[in-house]
Structure formats: structure tokens, C-alpha cells
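MODEL INPUT / OUTPUT PAIR
PAIR INDEX: 1
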Amino acid sequence: MLQTKNLQHSYTKGIDFVYPDLHCDANQQLLILGESGKGKSTLLHLLGLILPIQQGSVSINGIETSELNSSKAAAFRANNIGIIFQQHQFVKSLTVLDNILLANYYAKKSLDKAKVKQTADRLEISDLLHKKVYELSGGEMQRIGIARALQNEPKLLLADEPTSNLDDVNCERVYQLLADTATEQKAALVIVTHDQRLKNKIANQIHL
């Protein structure tokens, strides 16, 4: 489902980050560990087609993504990749429900409120759906971001620090939801984090 080769990225004239080759099959989980400044978020943005591929390759479900132009990359991302951001990208003027439904809108799919309700029940956030996102706590926003990432049933699920703001109970709940969803959807799950609580849950690990 996901394969990278010779991936590098630079924000300046020098090379900032050189990444090991990655491989993650459908139904498989990959944990990428590393402290701040090691390029974890940059790697996720490369895998999620948010940053352009400067050197190397990223193949997702057999598609070489560096060959896609910007509009095709955006459409591919909306329909095939779910991203849980560390810094949540919400529209503050919209309700939680509408922020989650934006995933359907960007993928040019019908708005699936039943799917929102199903995921919200599993994450125990059903009572938040009609609130504005600025009314939420950090942990609540984390779970809303997860719900939005799952909305289009992606084949590649990328999570940037999905549990770092959560207590132990919600950490376990969120990880299990991600793992179960990836299995149900036959998706590859890639988590980048410094949260050591996940080390014993995912055998396939890379340290940056």
C-alpha cells in the first residue's frame, strides 16, 4: 500500500532530512518514532502529498505520486489518504459536524452524516457534533481530527501524534479505533509520534 525509496527533503540549500525506505502493506501498521526536530511531521506531509517530492519516490496503492500534478495529487489525497494532523486544520466558523463532512466535500462525495454519527459514537464525541470547534478542549479536537480522517474510508491512514494529548484511557481507545479501522478498511496505518506508550502495541517500528 505504501512504499518509499531514497526520500529526502530540504527547507534550505542543504539537505535537512534523509529518510529510510519505508514499506507498509494493507492491514499493516508502521510506527515511526523520534524526538522533536527529527523530521517526523515533514515525513508525514510528504507521504500525505502535502509537500512536493524533491528527491526519491512515494508509491501509494501502486501509484507513483511524484508523477501527479497538484490538482491530481489533491484529488488522490482526498479519496485515498486520511491525515490526522498534530495542528488541527479546522474551519472555526463551522460546527464539528460540518468540519468532519468537509472530508466528503473535498473528495466530491455525498455528505455521509451516518458515517459521522457512527465514528462519533465510537469516539464518544456525539454530544460535540453541533458545537463550534473553538469550544473544544485539546483532547476533544484530537478526536474530531480522527473522525474527519476516517470519513472517506482511506486506504492509507497517517497519524501525526494522535495520542500525545490524551490520557491513558483515551490513548488506548484512540489507538484501538485506528487499528480496528485500518483492519476493517484493509488500510495501511502509519503513526508518527514520540509517545512511548505506543511502542509495545506496534511491532513494525522505525526510529528517526
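PAIR INDEX: 2
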Amino acid sequence: MKISIAKEIEVCERRVALVPDTVSRLVKQGFEVFLESGAGERSFFSDADYEAAGAKIVNDSAKLWGEADILLKVSPPQIREDGISEIDSLKENAVLISFLNPLGNPEIAQKLAERKITAFAMEMIPRTTRAQSMDALSSQASIAGYKAVLIAGAALPKYFPMLTTAAGTIAPAKVFVMGAGVAGLQAIATARRLGSVVEAFDIRPAVKEEVQSLGAKFVEVKLKEETTAAGGYAKEISEASKQRTQELVTEHVKNADVVITTAQVPGRKAPLLVTKEMVSQMKPGAVIVDLAAEQGGNCECTEPGKDIIKDGVTIIGPINLPSSMPVHASQLYAKNLTSLMKLFTKENTLQLNFEDDIINAACITHGGEILSSRIKDALAALV
């Protein structure tokens, strides 16, 4: 079975689907591994590193895609410079594993089904104990949460820790993290390591103990409706609950030196957490890092991919933060991919068992059909 590693053509994508260490393991298991020349360069893995691990280097992109039994990517398939769709480059019945954003862009599932591609979307891996080693959203979100704090620290015109000096005592920075999922928890831990005082907010009361275990104060809002969706994600709440939540967090945002927002709902616009009015009440020099920038932003002032200043507050809307740490991001993602492949490849053959909850959730197209009812609903909503 031929496993091919594609070179990413997305402008801001520096990650690679497999690293030499995971390639070596797959080769020892009897797989043939092919790498598009230069695929690992932006992650600081050379073609020579992959050749030493047992991979074969391919210079012809069309050949690599067309002959792959399993094609591995990071970003969703794109249109190449020659105008050819990467999806159209795959042979029928090939397997594609990648981030695909099928809920936000359901048309991609339709195209994959038309090409009779068996596609696994890494966003659709269920949040279960058994699937933890395959959970690419979590592995990459952890990197984003860590990097968000470093970005905030570089932009903040103050120290993070408390310092006692001959010239006097410096008070620690106050950091407010909104959303205590994987990214939020990593942001809390990183901000605490840097010596700041941390508060965190989440509409899910179940995360309170995790927040407190990291040394942060949990800001709790009691809502009458259910706030946790399937898989442990935060659920979209009613307008009345959103209003109540904003009223609660306004004072905490106002007093913070740094606000890091991480709230996202799969397939939907990010919930608004920080309004323009709240920004206007913040201290001059304060910093907001909005990790939901690509989904419209948790802050009303966020501009994706830009750093702006509004009322003396710096608002940063980073895009694809995991890609800014491509070495470790690629290592973690490669582990996620190989763990998933282990589930449905036996003796170097494809064996899909749709009774398995992970395969059933992550495999979005097979045999010319879209398998996910959520994606079908998203497609129907576009009509």
C-alpha cells in the first residue's frame, strides 16, 4: 500500500503530515512511503531526512497524488498553480486524510464523494478517551494556546511576573482566558508559568476543577440551559444567556492586562464574547489575542491576520497559530495520523469497520456517498 505525503500549497501552512520518525515506523511495518520533494522543508525536515527514514522522494506532484493509495495532508485540498484541483488529482477509491473543514465548507465533501474518495476529516475525530491519540484538533489547539500567551507577552508593555527590585515592586500582569478547552487550558498553564495572575471563564461548569488545578480563578456563570454539546465542546447558547454572560465577564475584561479568547463552535461563526464597548473600557496598553479570528472572532474588533489598535488596546487576530511552531506541530499531527491509520489498516490493506465509533465519525465520504448527516444538513442549508 502506497502512502503519499503531499507538499502543502496553502500560503501560511508550514506543517507537514508525517515526520521522518513516523515514516521510519511505517516503512518497518511494510508500507511504501512517498514524499513530495520539499514537503518537509518549512517544518525543518529535509528530503535527506526522509530518505534516511526509508521514504522515496517524488518530484512530480501529479504522479504523487495520482498513484497514492493513502494521501496525507494538513490543510484541505486546494487548486494548484496550474489550475488543477488537488481532489481531481486523486485516483478513484483512494483514501485522503486531512483537515477538511467539512462543516464550514461542506462542498468539499460533495466533491470528494463525486470522485469516490474515502475521506477522513481530522476535525471529526470524536472527543473520547479511546480517540485521544488521534485527536488532531486537541494536539494543535494546545500549541495555539501556548503560542497565544507568548504573542500577548511580546505585545504587552508590562512584565508578566511580579518583580521586587531596588526601584520598587512590580505587580504581576492580570490575564483573563475566555474558553477553557484545550487551547484555553494550555494558555492558562503558560500564563501561570510566566508568573501572571490568571482568571478563566467558560460556560461549561464541568471545566471548573481543571481551571483551578492549573492555579487560575474560575469565573462562573450559572445558566439554566445545557452548555455542553456532544464530544465535550461548548454548545451555542440562547441570546438571553449570551447577554447574561457578557454582563458577567465585562468587569473581568475591563480589569485585565491580557485577554485571550478561544471559544469556537465547529462549523459556525465564533461566538461574540468581547464587544467594542468592552474594549473601550480596557486599560490603555492592554492586549487581546483572539484565537477564533478565522471563524469571525470572539472580539467584535478582531480583523483576521492583523494586529490593530482600538482605544489604546492592541487586538491580535492570528491565523493558523499551530503552523508557526511547525516542528512540534508536525510531530504531534503525524502521531495523530498514524494512530488513525493503525485503526483501519490491517496487514497493509484497508479494512474499514463502520461499527467502530471513530471510523464512523471521522470518515465523511466513502463509495461515492457523503456519510455524515451533519455535513448533509450543512449542504442542504446552502440550497
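PAIR 2 NOTE: The mean pLDDT is 93.
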